[in-house]
Amino acid sequence: MSAVHDHLVTTLTGKFGVPAGTVRPEASYDDLGLDSLAVVELFMTLQEEWEVPLDDSDAAGTLTVRETVDLVEQLKARS
Question: Is the pTM of this model over 0.85?
């Protein structure tokens, strides 16, 4: 797995209390029990930590862990 994936798992488990065993690439934030406010907070956290311009309008409960990793990696590649 990538550094972005590993960091996302650490953030989800540490800051949001998501059990590590449930954080799979295909899991959506709805699956992980995060409400819409928590997903926006996650995006703000990732934006600050990775210094990428994540758009809060993309923060949806149906977004998967893999999609988030891909998005952050694409934004990092552009900067």
Answer: yes
